[in-house]
Specification:
globular; 6-stranded parallel beta sheet; alpha/beta; 8 strands; TIM Barrel
């Protein structure tokens, strides 16, 4: 079955308005299966069968709700970025790798498994052992009821974080070289996805938000000019976006603020990065998190160049309380002071399960939030 790029089929006039970031809560059977698989008690073929059933069910639920873009919920990944570490040689688990500065809202705690998580390190030259998302895309082509997206992590999630002095510098001269190498691998994957008919490719980047907080290394630079590091991040992501667009795919970049079992990483408005990031990234859409006051106001949207669309992440995935429909409508209207409504869309702020354990809400709460996104999008954009 041939799938069209979102927005095509009607002269390209219809922009996808009810969007989603990617991951969905794993149903209990799949979550238990992943636990058994990671413990060595379930083989890959058996896990794949359970994933297939869960994805088909999730696609049907998305169809019934009325979302404009389908995803497989990232059900085939232990976490949003593990498609890369599973498919590319050169990564090694490490108990001494970097930990991220996770935070929690008042009255909540960062789960121990999140606080203690360490990123993999690069211990050898990176070399693809297989395609990163070929099976995900093929299954979606066969089963998605309409346009679908495939997500890829930004290379800057891994570099410089996975560059461990004394280990990585034996194979890469610098974090910059590692970034470029991984960007090349991910760009080749994006090009392959687009050639195979994936109509929407999204890059997930939890890195740009690190420039929003004064106390984080990305703003200090850690001995490297912060402007240079930002330029390298933009160039790496553009390599992926350009490859997908050249193949005919709609492209998006999600500026993530951290999402793990309800915990988050950074706060601060987009103003410090807006001119460069919004202006220099070569994507069709920006998915921006705007679910809490930590994100600041809509003023930075004035710096988004035409015709780029901003997908407003107004519905939180970090807890189950359902947002007010009227409040969503008011906030969309407030955003139109800086971008016309035809250059806006709506989504949850992030995925519901950046790792297979998921965020602290129920599947019913998740689907009610996605149904609200679709319903409000129909009211605003028709």
């Amino acid at each position: 079955m041939t799938r069209s790029r979102p927005g095509e089929g009607d002269g390209g006039a219809r922009e996808p308005r009810a969007d989603q970031v990617g991951s969905l809560l794993r149903p209990p059977e799949l979550r238990r299966a992943w636990e058994r698989f990671l413990a060595g008690r379930l083989d890959r073929d058996a896990l794949t069968e359970i994933e297939d059933r869960a994805i088909v069910t999730a696609l049907e639920r998305q169809r019934s709700i009325g979302l404009d873009v389908y995803t497989d919920g990232e059900f085939r990944r232990a976490a949003y970025m593990t498609g890369v570490t599973d498919a590319v040689e050169g990564f090694s688990p490490s108990q001494t790798g970097p930990r991220l500065p996770w935070r929690a809202d008042p009255g909540r705690e960062v789960p121990p498994e999140v606080a203690s998580f360490t990123l993999p390190i690069v211990s050898a030259r990176l070399r693809p052992r297989r395609r990163i998302a070929a099976h995900e895309a093929a299954f979606l082509r066969a089963h998605a009821p309409g346009p679908f997206k495939v997500t890829l992590p930004s290379p800057v999630h891994f570099a410089p974080r996975s560059f461990l002095p004394g280990v990585t510098d034996r194979v890469y001269d610098s974090p910059s070289e590692l970034t470029r190498d991984l960007a090349t691998i991910l760009a080749e994957e994006a090009a392959s996805l687009a050639r195979a008919g994936v109509g929407y490719v999204q890059v997930d980047s939890p890195t740009y938000s690190a420039w929003l907080a004064e106390d984080l290394p990305a703003r200090r630079g850690d001995g490297i000019d912060a402007g240079q590091r930002l330029a390298e991040a933009i160039a790496a992501d553009n390599a992926i976006l350009d490859a997908a667009r050249a193949g005919g795919a709609l492209t998006a970049l999600h500026v993530c603020r951290g999402n793990a079992s309800g915990a988050w990483l950074t706060s601060g408005g987009y103003e410090p990065i807006a001119e460069r990031v919004f202006g220099e990234l070569r994507c069709d859409r920006l998915l921006l998190e705007y679910d809490t006051e930590r994100a600041g106001g809509f003023g930075p949207l004035r710096l988004v160049p035409a015709p780029r669309v901003v997908v407003l992440g107004l519905v939180t995935t970090k807890y189950g309380r359902l947002e007010s429909r009227d409040e969503l409508l008011r906030r969309i209207e407030a955003a139109t002071a800086f971008l016309p409504v035809e250059r806006l869309a709506l989504s949850p702020q992030c995925g519901f399960a950046s790792n297979f354990r998921g965020n602290p809400l129920t599947e019913d709460e998740q689907w009610r939030k996605l149904e609200l996104v679709a319903s409000v999008a129909r009211e605003v954009w028709g």
